[in-house]
Amino acid sequence: MLIVAKAGGTVVKNGLPEIAKDSKEIVDGGSNLIFVHGGGAEVTIIAEKLGKKQSLVISPEGFRSRYTDMETVEILNMVMSGKINKRVVSAFQSQGARSVGLSGVDGCLLKAKKKEKMIVVDERGRKRVLGAGFSGKICQVNSELVKLLVESGYVPVISPVAIGEEFELLNVDGDRAAANIAGALKADGLIFLTDVNGVILDGKLVREIKVSEIQKVLPKIGAGMSTKVHAALEALNMGVKEAIIASGLCKSPILSALQHENGTVIVHG
Ligand code: ADP
Ligand code: MG
Question: What phi and psi, each to the nearest 5 degrees, are found at residue 6?
């Protein structure tokens, strides 16, 4: 079995020991795991300590993203592929899970196409067009490199920084990166580990959403979560069996999500 798990910043900060224990168990049981991390909040803190003000923008569809100019992508890469990535690798190693940290730039693991423009909604609800800066959309995954590592018993730990057509570094969304990796490798499962128990609709946790129901529920889902639902859909369309959006802050977060005891399962149908 091949599992791709992605954890957001809060989970990377507070949930790594349990995730690392699950990872060791998964690999010992003969399955393969690929881990993708986010960490945007930490990028913002460090960028601002360096005197580089950050701005988050919202698209008309409700996606939240960072406005990434050249200095920002450099700081983002330092924090994501350096500080956060190595902290995750060391947490995995401490539980005996052998792991290798990579960015999407290494071995052209994530190739992306630079976005040309970004449509954003300003504070007054008006649409504005900005140059997209250094952010991209993933167009290719080096699955061979990832396979090489998982087949040797390593857990690749991947930061969401991609390489562009002109070999420039590009900011890519972590949820989308995980979905593309899972899709390219036809993973059995894709798990988004986040800071809530799953998709909440009308105040209640939803246990299952079918692909055919997604368009109906999306208008009720806010920024952050809607990116995951879209990414889940994208992965399922690429042949992934199921996607689970689950808490990364509980005991055994990955194993309990795989057993459908934690989170919202997004399934074909
Ligand atoms: P991550 O760092 O894991 O990517 P995000 O903050 O980007 O986390 O996304 C998760 C957040 O999405 C939740 O903390 C919650 O505030 C928000 N959210 C918006 N709409 C919903 C919803 N319908 N159900 C659950 N969470 C939602
Ligand atoms: Mg997020």
Answer: -125, 135
The pTM (predicted TM-score) of the whole model is 0.96
Angle, helix 174-184 to helix 143-151, in steps of 10 degrees: 80
* pLDDT digit string, tens, across residues 1-13: 999 999 999 999 9
Q: How far is the CA of 136 from the centre of ligand 1 (A)?
A: 22
- Determine if ligand 1 sits within 6 Å of the CB of residue 42: no
Q: What's the mean pLDDT when you consider all of the chain?
A: 96
**What's the confidence (pLDDT) of residue 18?**
98
Residues 231-254, mean pLDDT to the nearest whole number:
98
Q: Indicate if ligand 1 lies below 6 Å from the C-beta of 38.
A: yes
Q: What is the pLDDT of residues 146-192, one digit of tens each?
A: 999 999 999 999 999 999 999 999 999 999 999 999 999 999 999 99
Cβ of 200 less than 6 Å from ligand 1: yes
Ligand nearest to the CA of 6: 1
Is residue 8 lining ligand 1, measured as CB closer than 6 Å? yes
